[in-house]
Prior knowledge:
The protein is of the alpha+beta class and 292 residues long. The protein has a single domain, classed as q2cbj1_9rhob like domain (Jelly Rolls, Sandwich), CATH 2.60.120. It is 27% helix and 17% strand. It contains 10 helices and 9 strands. The chain has helices spanning 9-20, 31-40, 42-47, 66-69, 73-77, 80-90, 218-221, 224-227, 232-237, 275-290, and strands at 22-25, 60-63, 97-107, 133-139, 150-152, 171-172, 180-184, 189-191, 200-209. It is globular. 39% of the residues are buried. The mean pLDDT is 94.
Amino acid sequence: xxxxxxxxxxxxxxxxxxxxxxxxxxxxxxxxxxxxxxxxxxxxxxxxxxxxxxxxxxxxxxxxxxxxxxxxxxxxxxxxxxxxxxxxxxxxxxxxxxxxxxxxxxxxxxxxxxxxxxxxxxxxxxxxxxxxxxxxxxxxxxxxxxxxxxxxxxxxxxxxxxxxxxxxxxxxxxxxxxxxxxxxxxxxxxxxxxxxxxxxxxxxxxxxxxxxxxxxxxxxxxxxxxxxxxxxxxxxxxxxxxxxxxxxxxxxxxxxxxxxxxxxxxxxxxxxxxxxxxxxxxxxxxxxxxxx
Length: 292
């Protein structure tokens, strides 16, 4: 399913994700920008060892912390329409979304098909009711059926993730640099096998509920000395903001204070509440004062 922009693009993407569990956006970004990012990551692709284990794939290379490796990554992570669609899908269950991971990956010739799976199974929360994450696959090389294009099972998401795995054949999503494939954490998917003589390369960016433990430890990937050079929006996505109520604080304050470059001097814990909670607390405090 490709997302056609009759409606604002972010709403078209979100609608397709809710209906089918995936969405292919053609020409989401200039292919030249994709190539320049790939060049920035060439050394990491060359130096990263092959993975170990049957799930990651022993003919596959994977590495993270892409925002540290190339500043060009930000325009993909903060792609206006894609990020807005992810927020539309996820914010019914959270106050704000966070970056779950950025990962470069390369399937080398001989890579076997990956075990079909649902990424929401990283967390042991309720399934069939809550969407936990949105994945975005950005190809650096053409993705074809023969070189390991991502396989998705349309309609296998949401409550349908509670039933037995679908008997229908998966869809091999073929795409080229500049395209973006989005799919939900509840959507059954997996990498195809690489039966060609060429390496299939790309990048995964994913967003999850702001109160979850993300796949990639963002504060280790981007400590304050790195994150203080990020835009405020990007710093917030990698964890330098509180998730109301009061989650992710440092000494009771928003961790964004660590990005000023100045010594941190605690000023006392501060409420970070949703508006409904602020109203409830204010009413309670007023009633207590009135009863004195």
